[in-house]
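no rush on this but wanted to send it before i forget. theres a chain ive been looking at and ive put its sequence and its fold in token form underneath. i want to understand how the tokens follow from the sequence so walk me through it. thanks a lot i owe you, the record is right below:
>
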Amino acid sequence: MPQTLVVKIGTSSLTQPETGQMALSTIATLAETLSDLRRQGHRIILVSSGAVGVGCARLGLTERPKAIALKQAVAAVGQGRLMRVYDDLFTILQQPIAQVLLTRSDLVQRSRYLNVYNTFKELLELGVIPVVNENDTVAVEELKFGDNDTLSALVASLVKADWLFLLTDVDRLYSADPRSVPDAYPIALVNSMEELNKLQVQTSTQGSQWGTGGMVTKISAARIATTAGVRTVITQGRFPRNIEKIIQGEPIGTRFEPQPEPTSARKRWIAYGLVRAGKLYLDEGAVVAISQAGKSLLAAGITRIEGEFETQEAVELCDRSGNEIARGLVNYSSEELQKIRGRRSNEILAILGYEGVETVVHRDNLVLM
């Protein structure tokens, strides 16, 4: 049965760790694998890192640049080279591809979010494999995805994918980094994120010298994808053929089972598509009302406000300790909330001088985290 697959490959798999040069044999095998899957009727999206890493190698740089302007310039050099290699390989295999470069602002505005969805839909119906990357050349820091693990999970959520494959430099998730902790044990199946929390997995490992990811970003991506009902797998990038074996049921890598009742597309957009503009700290009563009783947030439950924001921007809802419990669209600006926080709804008119809505964040615009 044809399925929609999103495959993300990281810089650590696309390049040689010692030199940063492109790992052409891995890329060629990946192209063959995805072309074979496409011929079987599957719809494929490839999320590919590597633009900055390839650009560094092309320019003879010995380490990944830290300055934003230099990184964007290097990405512009590397992205063209990367797409040239992909296009040559997929052309030999008679598989059309398309370049899709995204920034977070493409997912912030609802109309642009839907437009991106429609573009993917048309490309997949045409039998094209979109090759997606963050548009590092123009993305500003506050509107960056930050890593392609997050980007791939948001794309998988957007297109309602069946599978998300995160190809990396380790064969699966371990209880700790196996490269530095000899007795770290492998984890083959994660039924829920709560189960993973109980295992106390150490996720402090960072990405390679040439990449930005790490295991922590992959687990975060799995959380986003499984919330959307997407089965997610972490597996070794050097062996792309494993994708086919995993689909056929072989227990390779670490598999994260999707949530049985995925959240709605709108709530996923609120939770993961938008950039949070501020934080609201809540008292215990408000935390219980929101997290356990499914209530909206009222001004009376807010103890502190952080950040500056306008009405209908996204904010984090936190307990007194700063732990995020939910995200939502706020009905008041930060300036207004500073005046009415901790006060009853029937006092808002007298305080602000005009009639406001009763709820600060309505439950329909609120997502538990």
User: Anything to note?
Assistant: The longest helix spans residues 68-92. DSSP finds 14 helices and 17 strands in the chain.
